């Protein structure tokens, strides 16, 4: 991110395009257009942005440039986000503006022409008149005018209000982070686990590969649109040269909504076809199953599905062991040498894959169709399992965060509409704000509502936009591109039968950037919560850690990673997190975990063989019981007592105390090395005893 001025008191926003770079040149104007808008009435300034000569088209988002500084009165308390300079479009000046974050509040300033075609902020005096430090233009106290849901700002156009509703202040993100942290702690608690929206599920993965793993193994990964199979050969050479073969099978859409048996039969058939293509190996093949859904694990190879997501809704699976379901489907095909020994979430595989090459990762994020995270937690924190030593990987399953209302103050009308049209209304609210499956839908609903307000596609029919999934997340990511984004926007809109103006395309681009930037900021919020939890539980002043990251959003849009890194630093300043892209997306990380599981199973088998002679079956115990009873009976017999191995000697003690005993008694106790003398007085009030021990 760009230079921060007073990060400790600054605010940050997932503002449109807030993935700032390390450049220092302010954006340039394109001929005939401005990137400013009239400020709110109380912030008006006579100097309006003028048109500037073309400087080679649009420029990337970048932090404030040489002249784009905060007013002196506000330095060290805020931060400036420059917006993408749109291409020429008459009337655009009423839709976009610079967003300045100052202390606890924000201001909308007009763009002013700077030297070399750049822009700068208003002068110190103008800014001081518009919005005094710590207060907004209406003189409201800090925190009273924050990003998001600015319906009471009459001078903002519908597009401005839409962009602001999709923008989050640092204070708001900090508040949501605290709620996330609270939900995580509840998820780890034995008592409160059932009430938490962040499940914090144990994975039973307590170690990482040590390089000694050898042999062949398979990985089967179930994704939204395909099934991936992977065959890995490990040579035990430190895992420096694994041999890989893989194949991807398209997953028909009808399999997502049918019965669970049909789905797992299809996965098993993919395994069979893959093995046929690589020569039908007949030796035992341990399998790691990547199942990217919320599961309650009771062991590395035992996991019950809690709930479906990502468009899956197969019957007769929730509440059942998905490892057994897949193994049963494989056994139907008589592939008895193929054994599913480990179930992993794709996030765990990302953590392992990101550790490849000498950068151990203790946290992983996946930001693709859905969203999830995992991290190595102190085992004593995971109260739902009995393990207290070392660490255990915890699968956060944070997609359901907000289902209890924790996100209500940051949800927009667009989010509500996406939720209402989904297959699981009211569920997985956080994932529906962050996951790639939903970002296109958020943009679609934003366009529909702006069109209804005559702010987009004026005079045109938007009936084609009314169809669910008419606007894809892939299109959103393409439209965000600096070089080709405007052309992609026009192409996507024309494919829907619209005739967009240049201004329409630019506004759609800004909406796309706002939606994706908000997703990045919320992802950073979740990561910051994990970092703070780890730092506190390990009692560290500063946590230094690598974070493995994967997913279409992260890979396809560089700004996403920049926002993720920067906002995380602001929300968890006590931690230094380095984002490490996943080194492999074909399941190598999962293969490593499967190899570790196989190594642990082999070691357990060796231990069991060693202990086998010492173990007694129920039949053995019953036989010993019979022999003991026989000897006890012989010991009680007059004629057989002398020969019994259990002598059963009489003590001539015929009664037990009944509580009426009274008096003083002397007891002598001769032990192996000590002689003990006890004086005991038994009274109605109780028993008093004095003793002395003599060493022999």
Question: What keyword list fits this structure?
Answer:
696 residues; alpha+beta; Nucleotidyltransferase, domain 5; 5-stranded mixed sheet; 16 helices; elongated; disordered N terminus; hexokinase
Helix/strand/pairing category: alpha+beta
Helix content: 25-40%
Mean pLDDT: 78
Instruction: Please give the CATH class of one domain.
Output: Alpha Beta
Main beta-sheet annotation: 6 strands, mixed
Q: How far is the first residue's CA from the last residue's CA? A: 80 Å
Q: The CATH topology of one domain is what?
A: Nucleotidyltransferase, domain 5
Strand content: 15-25%
Organism: Anas platyrhynchos platyrhynchos (Northern mallard)
Pathway: Carbohydrate degradation; glycolysis; D-glyceraldehyde 3-phosphate and glycerone phosphate from D-glucose: step 1/4; Carbohydrate metabolism; hexose metabolism
Family: Belongs to the hexokinase family.
Catalytic activity: D-glucose + ATP = D-glucose 6-phosphate + ADP + H(+); a D-hexose + ATP = a D-hexose 6-phosphate + ADP + H(+); D-fructose + ATP = D-fructose 6-phosphate + ADP + H(+)
